[in-house]
Design a protein that fits this description.
Length: about 90
């Protein structure tokens, strides 16, 4: 079941400089595991040492934040899109 995964620029060196890749799985967790099978090193960038998604990584399924769905258990189906979005911090105080 191919799912389109949009890969942020910092992770594209792991995906052969591709911003979009296909992965498979029935839920977000399985899709991310499949990404690691295809592109070694993705997992350590997305998960901390305890196996929890890093706080600064946001995952969206069809533009919906998984934190407001079922987290990594959010079901996906063929044709869905997953976006991996690293949080951006910083800025200048006025």
């Amino acid at each position: 079941m191919p799912i389109l995964v949009r890969v942020p620029t910092p992770l594209q060196k792991l995906t052969g400089n591709r911003g979009e890749v296909n992965a498979s799985g029935n839920n977000v967790k399985e899709v991310l595991a499949n990404l690691e099978e295809q592109y070694k090193g993705v997992r350590e960038r997305l998960y901390d040492e305890s196996g929890t998604l890093r706080r600064f990584i946001n995952i969206y399924v069809n533009d919906e934040d998984i934190r407001f769905l079922q987290g990594e258990s959010t079901k996906v189906k063929e044709g869905d899109e997953i976006s991996i979005v690293p949080a951006i911090a910083g800025g200048k105080r006025a």
